[in-house]
Each structure stands twice: as structure tokens, then as C-alpha cells.
């Protein structure tokens, strides 16, 4: 029973780390998959395989190396010089994403709860510190609460779409986009999310005692991400092409279900922002501690404080400026990971 519980916690933490605000809103799925029509079902399958394969590989390698942070892992995989540069870049990216997620939390409070943006930032910062100061176990516990709610919403949306006259769109819609663009999208999407997920997957892999728990947790977690992608794609396809005009496409579907699902969905969006925020801040604090030898709680407070200052720029501005660059360089990381793993078996 305890073994099964540990596997589920690993799987939920993996899912919660990958799934963020863009996923919950439906915008990521729309841009990377649904817009390409029926073939997106195949590209989602490719992403799922990559999430399972590389996710398991990251955790097992971290377990073998007893890696303190993803920096240890990158040095082994890519060598000291290249590994150091990749880790430095990852650190910059992680800080960028923490500011984006924090700004997203403030935006949820401002636009959905009609409270001030600053209130959203401060509430998120306080809750994050309470979780982060308790380590990886607390992060896994938070994900064990948030992720089941996300999965439940996924089921509700699929059932709702099932009765729609256009529910078969996911197998019928065509696109004029080139095959190169279509098949590059899942690599870009998976690369970015896996490059960032290593911030939690690596320390979690090192902390878990049994390799078998990591293997099954990675398998279930990667498959769970694929299931969430497919269910969202299925629901969004049924509303195409009109749904593409909305900034929060999934919210448009949820609004048709009534006020209670709307409130629950708002909590899901905030929960997904929060889990991604604490995951990236935690990974960043571990790497900085490894490099500076400073007290971890001091580093956490510094990271949260700097994130607060940068988040004043705003969610949309940060998102538009940072994500395209991060995504392209993450593809390089994924290619190197796959190529190096051909030579370095765990």
C-alpha cells in the first residue's frame, strides 16, 4: 500500500510540475496541437512517449548519481564545461518562469476574483514559502492534492464533449500547415517542459529510495500528461475553429457548465500556476545553494523577493518575451539528452 502511494505521489508531482497555466487555459494545447487538426492525435502520442522515456531517464540517472540538483546531472551527461553552461542557462530560465508564474497568480486574483494584482502576488509568495521551506516532501503533497482535481476536470470535459454533435472533429479537422511545422511542435513543447521539469525530477529521483518507484512513477506520470493533453485536444477540437479566438479557450467551455464548475476551474488554474511556481523556485534554490553554499531559506526568500520585483512587468509581457527563446534552446537540450543517452545507459 505504501509502495503504491509513493508511486502515485511521484506521478502526480511529475504531472503537476509540467502542467502550468498555459495548459490549464487550453492555450498551449491549442497552439501546439489542436490547430493542426486530426494529426495532433499522433503528435500528442509522440509527446507522451518522450515524456515517459526522458522523464524516467532523468529520475533514474539522478537516483544513481545521488544528484544534489540538476547541475550535477548536466555535468555528467554533457561534460563539465558544456554541462556548466547548460545549468547556468537553465537557472536563468527557471527564474524567468518563476516570475511568469507569479505574475500569472496575480492576474488570476485581478481578473477573476476582482482583487488587486499585488494581493495575488503576496498571497502566492506566502503560500509558496510555507511549502518550499518544508522541502520536496511538501511539494509532492501539494501536487497530490492539485493533480487529482485536474484529472477529474479532464473527465468532466470529455463527458461533456462526448454528447456534442461535433465531438468527432478531433478525427476530421484538416490543416494547411506544413508537416515540418506540425511535427516540430511536439518536440518544442516536450523539450521546454522536460528541461524545466528537471528542476524537481532530479532532486526527487535522488530522494526516493527505490528505483522501481521512480520507474513506475515516471511511466504513470508521463502517461497522465498524455491523457490530459488528449482530453483537452478532444474538447477543444469539438469547438473549432471558433474557440481559437479566446484567450482562455478551456474557460469558454467550462463557462457553459454553470457557476460551480467555473469556480472549481478557477482553483484548478491557480493550482497549476502554483505547482509550477514552487517546482521551479525549489530547483533554482538547490542550484544556487550548490554554487554559493548560502543558507537555503535565505536563498528562497531572495528568489521570491526578486520574482516579486520582476513580476511587476506583468504576465502577458513576460510570457511573450521569454517563452519563445526558452523553447528553442530547450529543443537543443532535448536533442543532446537523447544523443548522450545513446552512449550513457543508466
Set down the secondary structure blueprint:
Blueprint: H1 2-18, H2 21-25, H3 27-32, H4 40-65, H5 70-78, H6 80-111, H7 117-132, H8 136-162, H9 179-207, H10 211-237, H11 249-254, H12 259-292, H13 296-310, H14 315-341
Describe the structure.
The protein is mainly α. The protein has a single domain, classed as Hydantoin permease, CATH 1.10.4160.10. Helix content is 80%, strand content 0%. It contains 14 helices and no strands. The protein has helices at 2-18, 21-25, 27-32, 40-65, 70-78, 80-111, 117-132, 136-162, 179-207, 211-237, 249-254, 259-292, 296-310, 315-341. Helix 4 packs parallel to helix 9 and helix 7 packs across helix 12 (259-292). This is Transporter. The chain crosses the membrane at residues 7-24, 36-56, 85-109, 115-132, 144-162, 182-202, 214-236, 263-286, 298-315, 321-339. Keywords: Membrane, Transmembrane, Transmembrane helix. InterPro entries: YkvI-like. It comes from Paenibacillus silvestris.
